[in-house]
Amino acid sequence: MKKINKLSTFDQMMENSDFKAKFDQGYQEFLLSELLISLMENDQKSVRQLAKEANISPSVIQDIRSGKQKDIKISNFLQVIKACGYKLILEKGENRISL
């Protein structure tokens, strides 16, 4: 009797450490883009409006939205979330640091 593999194709591919590392990197970049799009939609801000409020170039905002910008400077990220009315909180156990 033939053994049936219970893992999906994706799960099988994720067992490969090289594939998993590349996937994880791409997924983080996707999440950043989706987060920015969501923040902008919630606040009904255009690329130009957010760029002006965050004091960064509209092309930087657009590159993050489109996924072209792979790494974002933490200073730019903090300016963007501040312009959207959020703050970044680092948490470890009971300790919290607000940035």
Please describe what this structure looks like.
It is a single chain. This protein is mainly alpha-helical and 99 residues long. The protein has one domain (9-98): 434 Repressor (Amino-terminal Domain). It has 5 helices and 2 strands, in the order αααααββ. It has helices spanning 9-14, 17-43, 47-54, 58-66, 74-83; strands spanning 89-92, 95-98. A two-stranded antiparallel ribbon has the order 1-2. Strand 1 (89-92) and strand 2 (95-98) form a beta hairpin. Helix 2 crosses helix 4. The chain starts with 8 loop residues before the first helix and ends with a strand.
Tell me about the biggest sheet? 2 strands, antiparallel
- What name is given to the CATH topology? 434 Repressor (Amino-terminal Domain)
Q: Output the number of helix runs.
A: 5
Q: Indicate the radius of gyration in whole angstroms.
A: 18 Å
Q: Which architecture name does CATH use?
A: Orthogonal Bundle
* Domain unit count: 1
Brief write-up:
This protein has about 100 residues and is mainly alpha-helical. The protein contains five helices and two strands. It is elongated and about 60 Å long.
Secondary-structure blueprint of this entry?
Layout: H1 9-14, H2 17-43, H3 47-54, H4 58-66, H5 74-83, E1 89-92, E2 95-98
Antiparallel strand pairs: 1-2
Helix pairs in contact: 2-4, 3-4, 3-5
